[in-house]
């Protein structure tokens, strides 16, 4: 009964979504207040119905209702509760349900918290959100219904794919989806603004928090996915430039550009039509990511068995959303009035450069990801494009981006003095030289030359961002108490920027360290054997048998020592899941701040007395994710900025600007 | 600066960005594209010393561990032709005889030495290139159907 209730709620949600879109659009065009107001209760009702439906599906998974096909295919009565709940989105149907849940939560949030939005803009934003909802609800109901029953019900289920029975499943998809779907807000605001024919600083101020929230969660989602792929053997490590990874990276790059160009609209009333275009492109890339992942047309280390018919449906959705909004853009964008002027060397100029480089980077990833598809369609052969391509195209664009990122905040609006900005960054320059010199000395020429560039960039980004912050609070130029006071009263967005920019430096440090100086050893080891990797001794103590809830495991024990000192005991496992008859390799990792020791237990050799053992030493790798978490925190801190909480931007503008990144630099 | 002039600058910069992206991509494509071949295509294709991907089914009964314990030898087949493959390292969890596989590496003395054997996420997943190659050889079975069949057998 409960699954039928969930199904029914989902169908109702579709009709409510139609009510959320059509009448408000008509109402906004004819200035009919009552019709416009329908959007608010409709958005809330749609969210409640979708949540109810999602809860029904979760209930079916939790109580192991094996009369529901989705539960049979993806669950098992002995599966741990964590994976019964997170397993709901560990399959195609459930993941689309999670998608629509996120979409309606964002929609309802606008309905509830968007009280200061002009009524027509609010009605139109909600209407566009409603239309996206209609598309995805139709998709679920027609091609991916999770509530289909099986008669007779089997006694037990097929179990969830063991590779997904990992804590990563509980966290990675919700964050990733919140990010993808969060960009739908920027999209809806952009389309609504095009219909209105009006974009002003107030509009940007409404869009910014949503974009920030989406960007922060997407950053977290990507970082967690990268970590999961790193500790799961055979997924290609922390970043493989795999199509599925690129699918999440492209909206992130475009979203980062959007985040920055919206600042220019907000502060200087310029770059309006570009910002609108970016909002459309970012969400289109999110949709395209969904299409690439869900259709399985590209070979990927992260691909699952999928039904190609679903891909076509998403492709049609993508064509309607992107094509429609771009058409609207081409009709309306020329009518947007251009705003403030600026010289090339200025804060605006720096943000334009940021946008150009980010767009170029997005373009290179886009070309590399879709090129195999084009060749295939043109029958020119089957190819794949891997890491070497992206290293050759993405890295040259990323390097100037990071260099400029540190200089940009030093430039003033309208027109600035580049020489003066660079002079103030001398400390960062010294840090770069020192970091490169120390690395070159310690590593004595091992690793590629690019590694030194990476270390230099990391130092530049990290130290340069902190120097800028120190400058802002006049550290060492006034009393410490005074500086502290300034820091406390600095807008949160300034804090957020420093945290996020400095974190990029940390991530670069981790990426460089593990790419340049990783060491590995693959050997067949018998109990008692020793292996030496990067100065650490690994002693293989033996293998024991362990019983899990729905698997049996061989657990190896390794004692790690360095210079006779015991460092850690590592216990990698090989699990065999009885229901799916699949084996998974669970690596064991000992992490210190400076490196990871990583051990994976492979197959036994033919006579069964030895095991294949893979041992890695990954220098600096934890900093990739520490940086990722830092970027997310930067976004969240920025999100708490006062100007996003206080409404009525018009009134505040009249009272004078106090906010954010336009805060004048401390006078010398 | 006038509005017109600024627009011109912006356009110039944007074109520069786009141009450099295209130039970077084209030069990178020259060296970094990895082609995919099935065992049958390998019979007619000159591959030289380039890296490429080989895909097909792991031939039944062909998997052999070498004496060093970490090297595995097996044959990849599309039923019409087969290729000897050697791989040093740990095979992915879902590597099995009779299942689809994609390996990346190069030909060395008539043997395909794999640098990497790509993992799969679930056993019904068949990389699109492999299913295409099998379709061309006329032996493709829908993996989803055969999976339900195995499930029913139990």
UniProtKB/TrEMBL annotation, chain B:
<dbReference type="GO" id="GO:0046872">
    <property type="term" value="F:metal ion binding"/>
</dbReference>
<feature type="topological domain" description="Cytoplasmic">
    <location>
        <begin position="1"/>
        <end position="7"/>
    </location>
</feature>
<comment type="similarity">
    <text>Belongs to the CcmE/CycJ family.</text>
</comment>
<keyword id="KW-0479">Metal-binding</keyword>
<feature type="signal peptide">
    <location>
        <begin position="1"/>
        <end position="25"/>
    </location>
</feature>
<dbReference type="InterPro" id="IPR004329">
    <property type="entry name" value="CcmE"/>
</dbReference>
<feature type="topological domain" description="Extracellular">
    <location>
        <begin position="29"/>
        <end position="154"/>
    </location>
</feature>
<dbReference type="InterPro" id="IPR012340">
    <property type="entry name" value="NA-bd_OB-fold"/>
</dbReference>
<keyword id="KW-0812">Transmembrane</keyword>
<dbReference type="InterPro" id="IPR036127">
    <property type="entry name" value="CcmE-like_sf"/>
</dbReference>
<feature type="binding site" description="covalent">
    <location>
        <position position="121"/>
    </location>
    <ligand>
        <name>heme</name>
    </ligand>
</feature>
<keyword id="KW-0349">Heme</keyword>
<dbReference type="GO" id="GO:0017004">
    <property type="term" value="P:cytochrome complex assembly"/>
</dbReference>
<keyword id="KW-0472">Membrane</keyword>
<dbReference type="GO" id="GO:0020037">
    <property type="term" value="F:heme binding"/>
</dbReference>
<keyword id="KW-0732">Signal</keyword>
<dbReference type="GO" id="GO:0005886">
    <property type="term" value="C:plasma membrane"/>
</dbReference>
<keyword id="KW-1133">Transmembrane helix</keyword>
<keyword id="KW-0201">Cytochrome c-type biogenesis</keyword>
<protein>
    <recommendedName>
        <fullName>Cytochrome c-type biogenesis protein CcmE</fullName>
    </recommendedName>
</protein>
<feature type="binding site" description="axial binding residue">
    <location>
        <position position="125"/>
    </location>
    <ligand>
        <name>heme</name>
    </ligand>
</feature>
<keyword id="KW-0735">Signal-anchor</keyword>
<dbReference type="Pfam" id="PF03100">
    <property type="entry name" value="CcmE"/>
</dbReference>
<dbReference type="GO" id="GO:0017003">
    <property type="term" value="P:protein-heme linkage"/>
</dbReference>
<keyword id="KW-1003">Cell membrane</keyword>
<keyword id="KW-0408">Iron</keyword>
<comment type="function">
    <text>Heme chaperone required for the biogenesis of c-type cytochromes. Transiently binds heme delivered by CcmC and transfers the heme to apo-cytochromes in a process facilitated by CcmF and CcmH.</text>
</comment>
């Amino acid at each position: 009964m409960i699954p039928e209730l969930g199904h029914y709620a989902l169908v109702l949600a579709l009709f409510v979504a139609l009510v959320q879109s059509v009448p408000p659009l008509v109402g906004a065009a004819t200035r009919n207040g009552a019709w416009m107001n329908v959007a608010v209760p409709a958005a809330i009702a749609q969210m409640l119905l979708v949540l109810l439906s999602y809860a029904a599906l979760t209930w079916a998974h939790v109580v192991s209702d094996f009369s529901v096909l989705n539960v049979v295919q993806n669950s098992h009565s002995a599966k741990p509760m964590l994976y019964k709940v997170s397993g709901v989105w560990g399959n195609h149907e459930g993941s689309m349900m999670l998608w629509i849940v996120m979409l309606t939560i964002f929609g309802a949030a606008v309905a509830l918290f968007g009280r200061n939005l002009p009524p027509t803009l609010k009605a139109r934003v909600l209407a566009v959100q409603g239309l996206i909802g209609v598309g995805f609800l139709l998709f679920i109901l027609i091609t991916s219904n999770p509530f289909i029953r099986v008669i007779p019900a089997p006694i037990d289920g097929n179990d969830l794919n063991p590779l997904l029975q990992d804590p990563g499943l509980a966290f990675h998809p919700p964050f990733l989806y919140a990010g993808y779907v969060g960009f739908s807000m920027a999209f809806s605001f952009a389309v609504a603004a095009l219909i209105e024919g009006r974009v002003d600083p107030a509009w940007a101020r409404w869009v910014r928090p949503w974009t920030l929230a989406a960007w922060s969660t997407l950053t977290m989602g990507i970082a967690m996915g990268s970590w999961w792929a790193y500790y799961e053997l055979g997924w290609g490590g922390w970043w493989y430039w795999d199509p599925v990874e690129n699918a999440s990276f492209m909206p992130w790059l475009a979203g980062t550009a959007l985040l920055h160009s919206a600042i220019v609209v907000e502060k200087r009333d310029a770059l309006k039509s570009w910002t609108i275009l970016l909002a459309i492109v970012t969400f289109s890339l999110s949709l395209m990511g969904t299409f690439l992942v869900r259709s399985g047309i590209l070979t990927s280390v992260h691909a699952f068995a999928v039904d190609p018919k679903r891909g076509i449906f998403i492709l049609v959705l993508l064509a309607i959303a992107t094509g429609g909004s771009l058409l609207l853009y081409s009709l309306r964008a020329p009518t947007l009035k251009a705003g403030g002027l600026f010289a090339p060397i200025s804060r605006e100029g720096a943000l334009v450069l940021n946008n150009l480089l980010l767009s170029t980077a997005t373009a290179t990833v886009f070309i590399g990801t879709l090129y195999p598809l084009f060749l295939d369609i043109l029958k020119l052969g089957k190819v794949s494009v891997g890491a070497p391509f992206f290293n050759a195209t993405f890295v040259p664009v990323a390097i100037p981006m990071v260099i400029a990122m540190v200089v940009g905040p030093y430039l003033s609006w309208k027109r600035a003095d580049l020489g003066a900005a660079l002079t103030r960054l001398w400390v960062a320059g010294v840090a770069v030289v020192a970091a490169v010199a120390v690395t070159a000395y310690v590593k004595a020429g091992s690793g590629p030359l690019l590694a030194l560039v990476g270390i230099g960039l990391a130092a530049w980004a990290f130290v340069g961002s902190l120097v800028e912050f120190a400058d802002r609070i006049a550290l060492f130029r006034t009393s410490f108490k005074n500086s502290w006071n300034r820091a406390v009263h600095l807008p949160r967005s300034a804090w957020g920027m420093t945290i996020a920019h400095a974190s990029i430096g940390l991530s670069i440090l981790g990426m460089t360290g593990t790419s340049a100086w990783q060491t590995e050893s693959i050997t067949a080891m018998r109990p008692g054997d020793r292996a030496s990797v990067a100065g650490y001794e690994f002693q293989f103590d033996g293998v024991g048998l362990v019983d899990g809830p729905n698997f049996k495991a061989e657990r190896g024990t390794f004692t790690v020592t360095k210079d006779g000192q015991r460092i850690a005991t590592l216990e990698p496992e090989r699990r065999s899941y009885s229901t799916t008859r699949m084996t998974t390799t669970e690596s064991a990792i000992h992490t210190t701040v400076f490196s990871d020791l990583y051990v994976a237990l492979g197959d036994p050799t033919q006579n069964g007395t030895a095991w294949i053992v893979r041992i890695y030493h990954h220098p600096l790798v934890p900093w990739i994710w520490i940086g990722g978490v830092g970027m997310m925190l930067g976004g969240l801190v920025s999100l708490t900025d006062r100007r996003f909480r206080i409404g009525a931007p018009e009134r505040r503008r009249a009272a004078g600007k106090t906010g954010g990144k336009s805060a004048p630099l401390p006078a010398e | 600066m006038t509005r017109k002039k600024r627009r011109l600058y912006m356009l110039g910069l944007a074109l520069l960005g786009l141009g450099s992206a295209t130039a970077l991509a084209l030069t990178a494509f020259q060296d970094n594209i990895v082609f995919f071949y099935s065992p049958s295509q390998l019979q007619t294709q000159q591959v030289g010393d380039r890296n490429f991907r080989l895909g097909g089914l792991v031939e039944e009964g062909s998997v052999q561990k070498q004496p060093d314990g970490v090297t595995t030898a097996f044959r990849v087949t599309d039923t019409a032709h087969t290729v000897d493959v050697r791989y040093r390292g740990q095979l992915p969890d879902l590597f099995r005889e009779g299942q689809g596989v994609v390996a990346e590496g190069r030909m060395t003395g008539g043997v395909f030495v794999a640098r990497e054997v790509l993992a799969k996420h679930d056993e019904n997943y068949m990389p699109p290139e492999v299913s295409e190659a099998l379709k061309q050889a006329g032996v493709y079975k829908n993996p989803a159907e055969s999976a339900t069949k195995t499930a029913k057998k139990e």
